Amino acid sequence: MKNKIVTFGEVLLRLSKFGRKRLFQPGEFIENFGGSEANVAVSLSTLGDNVQYISRLPDNLLGKSIQMTLRNYNVNTDSMIWGGDRLGSYYFEEAAAMRNSSVVYDRNDSSFYTIKPGMIDWEKAFSDAAIYHFSGISCAISRDSLDATWESVKKAKAAGIPISFDVNYRKNLWKFGSDAQDVLQIFAEKADIIFGDQGEYEVISGMPAIPFKALDANYEIERDEYQAYFDKVQEMYPKCKIFVMAIRNQIASTHHTLTGMLYIQGKLYTTRIYDISPIVDPMGVGDAFIAAYLHAYQHWNDDPQRCLDFALTASSLKNTIPGDFNLNTEEEIELVMNSNGPIKFDVE
């Protein structure tokens, strides 16, 4: 039985200051490797899945360090390719109180920025693949990375591999002339599973997001509104089988409420709300949600409610872990998932 999940995207070096300092304040940087699809891959591997990650890295010590890091988490990197002059990076200024977080990207002319169609042996990479996962970030970095991503989707479709697409809209990345909404809608048309938050579904549907104003775990979701919303999204993307939405209200920089939605064949599934305060590190929370859902789908796809519950719990727990990777096991996630009643995470 095929069980391999293939992911494709750019690995980045994340740099941020200790103690929530601003980027222009003197002091040492904290370094982490990350990137949406790499985060998904590590989370899947931590959950025990067979996962292969594909990217293009510079053939230097930094690139080798990333490969070693991924292999340390049992991620298959056999289809990794090498080339280009530099690793992409970003500088992350953490939020504090009423000050929002901010990001400065430094990824122009990176190894992934200059990737081109034909560089990756997709037939080899997709051997025994059960799911192919990528995100809209890979479409946004450069025209070349967009073309290479489109090539991967065509190869996956030709091989009959289900496609998992994370819309992952990043406004600041779309600088090479293509219209983000048009491109992301084209990719969504090819997907079997679509992931996104409220704003990202707005990008691919053109419909305003439904407000989520939960201040605690007792908030009541407007089920009828979401049912009607996803009914319309399904009409727009009739070939997609599964729609998954992660929903967050950022009450303060260190206090979030989270929930999620799952829509399959006209039926809407909802789940509990997690109230998390204080947030240790919010990076990779959406990627943890995606990885946990794909894991659950591989194992319990006859139980959509369990799949959604598991995904949301994993995403909530990621807020307690520094860095981009969610390192919670299936057992740890299920322990929290199976607890009764509303949950407030008081992270110490």
Automatic annotation (TrEMBL):
Q: Where is the Carbohydrate kinase PfkB domain?
A: 3-318
Q: Which domain of life is it from?
A: Bacteria
Assigned keywords, A-Z = Kinase, Transferase
- List GO molecular-function terms, semicolon-separated: kinase activity
| A Pfam cross-reference name | PfkB
Transmembrane as a keyword of this entry, yes or no, is no
Family matches, as InterPro entries:
Carb_kinase_PfkB-like, PfkB_dom, Ribokinase-like
CDD domains, alphabetized? KdgK (cd01166)
Q: Which family does it belong to?
A: Belongs to the carbohydrate kinase PfkB family.
From the Swiss-Prot or TrEMBL record, give the protein name.
2-dehydro-3-deoxygluconokinase
